[in-house]
Design brief:
Blueprint: E1 4-7, E2 13-17, E3 22-23, H1 30-40, E4 51-56, H2 62-74, E5 78-83, H3 90-94, H4 98-101, H5 108-116, E6 122-124, E7 129-134, E8 147-152, H6 166-175, E9 176-184, H7 189-198, E10 201-206, E11 213-219
Parallel strand pairs: 4-5, 4-8, 5-7, 8-9
Antiparallel strand pairs: 1-2, 2-3, 6-7, 9-11, 10-11
Helix pairs in contact: 1-2, 6-7
């Protein structure tokens, strides 16, 4: 499938798939979306406590990198697991401008290490942040009560509805500990119904720039 590097409205880059007319991140701002959906409405709930995070769609590594930067500010311990069936190439990673757009040139080696680290191996990125990248399809996830927070960042329902089913959200519910959360940019009615069906309590929140709403799901 053809892939192009494009610039989003906040100046940060993403990967565009012309055949699907789909992007890895919001065209309205990749960095803005990551900060709003996953940091403001996800990580910030944990007030500096140790957090185990599962990301559905590791992709360009943007969400992981921004989460790492937050751990440095908050002195917060993070164990991060990113699941990705089709890893982004090193050539594409080299064209992502997140380090410069976030003004963290001194952390460029960290972003590089995240992508160069071995798959299916726990790697210590810093004193506060460990990363395990799992090369895995989402329907193969079998974790049980392992995570405090899920970043659900799969491709959209329009192009991959099979990633937004009750079956997938049952796996997400099972993977979370009690008193934990899943956050996603999505706000489709069928997605909400699937989340509720498996046991989540779902709230609708203000979406990131260019999107009116998003969901946050809670497991009691």
């Amino acid at each position: 499938m053809k892939r192009e590097i494009i610039q989003t409205s906040d100046g940060s880059t993403t990967i565009h798939l012309p055949d699907w007319n789909e992007n890895y991140h919001s065209k309205h701002g990749a960095i803005q979306e990551a900060k709003h959906v996953f940091i403001k409405n996800g990580l910030s709930l944990f007030n500096g406590k140790s957090v185990s995070i599962l990301e559905i769609g590791f992709g360009t590594g943007l969400n992981a990198f921004i989460t790492y930067l937050e751990t440095e500010k908050r002195n917060q311990q993070i164990h991060y697991v990113g699941v990705e069936a089709y890893p982004v190439s090193f050539e594409e990673v080299a064209q992502m401008n997140y380090v410069s757009e976030l003004d963290v040139e001194n952390k460029a080696v960290v972003f590089q290490n995240m992508h160069e680290s071995e798959w299916n191996t726990n790697v210590k990125i810093s004193d506060n942040f460990s990363l395990t990248k799992r090369k895995q399809f989402f329907n193969e996830i079998t974790d049980v009560e392992q995570f405090d927070l899920i970043y659900f960042d799969a491709f959209g329902f329009r192009v991959q509805p099979e990633l937004w089913t009750t079956e997938i959200f049952q796996k997400m519910f099972n993977a979370l500990k009690h008193d934990s959360y899943l956050v996603t940019y999505a706000a489709r009615g069928s997605v909400k119904r699937s989340m509720i069906e498996v046991g989540f309590t779902v709230e609708k929140l203000e979406g990131p720039p260019g999107k009116r709403e998003m969901f946050r799901a809670y497991k009691k």
